[in-house]
Each structure stands twice: as C-alpha cells, then as structure tokens.
Amino acid sequence: MNRQQKNRLMAIIVCIVLLGSAAGLVLYALKQNINLFYTPTELLQSHPLPTDGIRIGGYVKNRSVKYDKSGQTVRFIVTDRKNELTVIYRGILPNLFREGQTVVVGGKLEVPHTFIADLVLAKHGERYKPKSVGKYSYKV
Amino acid sequence: MRRAWYWISQQGLSTQSFYKTSGRLLPFITAGFLVLFLYGLIAGLFFAPADYQQGDGFRIIYVHVPSAFAAMAIYFCMTICAVLTLVWRIKIASLCLTASTSLGAGFTFLALVTGSIWGKPMWGTWWIWDARLTSVLILFFIYGGLIALQSIIANKQHRDRAVSLMTLVGAINLPIIHYSVIWWSTLHQGATLSLFSESLIAPAMLRPLLAMIAAFMLFYGMIVCLRMRNTILVTDMKTEWVKKVLQ
Known about the structure:
The complex is a heterodimer of chains A (140) and B (247).
Chain A: H1 3-29, H2 31-34, H3 40-45, E1 54-60, E2 66-67, E3 73-79, E4 84-90, E5 102-109, E6 114-122
Parallel strand pairs in A: 4-6
Antiparallel strand pairs in A: 1-3, 1-5, 2-3, 3-4, 5-6
Chain B: H1 2-12, H2 15-47, H3 61-88, H4 91-122, H5 131-152, H6 156-170, H7 173-183, H8 203-235, H9 240-246
C-alpha cells in the first residue's frame, strides 16, 4: 500500500466510524418510538399512562379466550407473565392466533387492565418443524 | 510478497484476466445454479414436510428467505467493492459494483413482496412499520438511489467514486437490518438460521432452504459475471485482446 492509498483508507474508516456513531445515537434516542409495542408491564408502569392508539404485545394466556354468544366478539388475556390485560376485540383473528401464541394488539386502554382492540396480529416463532413431533426434540 | 501483490494488482485483477477466468467459471456457476435451484424448488414445494403451525403456507420461505439473504449479501459484496474502488482503484471492483445494484434492488423487492404475501394470512396484515420491515424498505430505497446516481453521472470515474461513497454510507443499514429483531420489539420473528448455533428448523425443511440460498447467490454471480464481461468488451473495444476475442 502506498501513502496515498493509506490516506484514502484512513479517510474511509474515519467516515464510517463517524456515520456509524451518528446513526447509533439517532436510533438510541428514538428507541421507544421504534419499538412496535409495550409489554403489559411497560404500559402499566409508564407515566403518564398512554391511552389511545397504542400497541401491546405478549402471550395469549391459556384458557382465557372466550367468545360472546354471537361469536363475533372475543375476549382474551394478554400477559407477559408479570402483568396482564384483558383484551376485547370484534373482528377476524389471524390464522396463527391461539392460546399460548405471542400477539400484538392495537387499540386503546379503557379502564385499567382492559384494552379495547381494533387490531390483533399474531407473531410466530423462529421454529419450523413437521406436525409429527415425535422425531424432533424441539420445544414449542 | 511485494512483487506478488504488485502482480495481482496489475495483471491478476485486470479486465482481461477477469474476462478469461470468468469465462472458464461461468459454465460451472450456471450448472450449479440449475442443479441447486431445481432441487430446492422441488424438494421445498413437494417433499419437505408441512409446518406444525403454518401448514403448507410456510413454503413461501423457500423464496422469501433466499431473496432477503441475497438482498443483504449483494449489498455486502458491493460494500467490499466500494472500498476496493475508493482505496485501490481496482477496475473490476467498480464494474462489479455497478453491475450489482439493480440485482440487489430486484431481490429486495422480491423479499418485500413475498414477505407481504406471507404476512397477510399468518400475522393478519400485509404491512406494519416495525423495525425489520422498515429497515428492509430503506435498503430498497438505497438500492434505488444508487441506480439513479449511477445513471445520471456520465463521467465513468466520477460515477464510480460517487456510487462507491454512497454504497459505504448505506452500508450502515446492514447491521441495523440484521439486529433490528434483537434491538427492538418487532412483529417479525428473530433469525431461524444461524452460523454458530443449531438452526431452529427441522433438517428436512432446512436442506432445500440452504440449496435455494446457494442457488440465488449463484444466480447473482452468474448475472454479474455476464454483465461485467459485456461492459469489459465495450470499454476495452480498441485493445488487441478484445479484437482477438471477437474475431
């Protein structure tokens, strides 16, 4: 490497370090805005309590999904294993919605611990495996 | 050592020797692509078992993951080419850089579209502004910007340097895309494949997936070689060796 090439390489490295730290600082400052959802615990601990246009994420608690008589309105509990919120939703649930699944729910916080949803999205895990579980030792 | 390096930079990386070497390699790259692509497609669509939660719907993974992988891997290649262009002024690096941009944009587009089609039935939405989806969309815009930049600058030397510099700036997005699912809460799940630990996908599903990833990368290699060879023939038109090749 001659002198000129060394200088150019140094200039590039300095450029990348500066740009990288700038990007890092911006992303760090915007952390709370980039996060897609609050966990129930984060939501209940935040002051002042945001109420409208928020998203929460967590597990659908086992045996908590209940439909009303018409079958159109569903009510279930979203938990992060510390705190839980009751969600009321009227609409079509995604394919992967089931008890134990992670979901993202959008809507508003009505009375403490009750969430009126206008959006229910199902997250799915990183695991892919056949239905016949026997041969594979993956945990769900 | 010094003399070997000198030879590499003068002869080994010349357009002429690239033309010769790539000509010899291209049949193998093409054959490898065809074999892996056909195996991956048939094994993935017909022989891999259905997923325990998503059923047959999960099979879109065999297009989505390889295109997302290619979108990022191509940008990584371009970043290396950009450094080689800016620091060492290696000609075939800048040729590779400008030949790669539209391919990268194509694969990013494919990843976004297949992801969207996958997201609707499984998540319940075509699109959400979570960190992973948004950062990949930004990657697509960066590719678009690079294509625009390289087509508005007429002077080849200026063009190559400008595109290289922009490529380096955009490279900051690569770690952001990769770590987006770890740093922030997102709807998109974390990584299934991992280099250093066990992958979270059953082996019978994994094999076609790896074959498809390799096939997509070989396809990229094939098209980039063809494009670079084309450009070399045009730019070196007046040299003796090109005249000999074209005879």
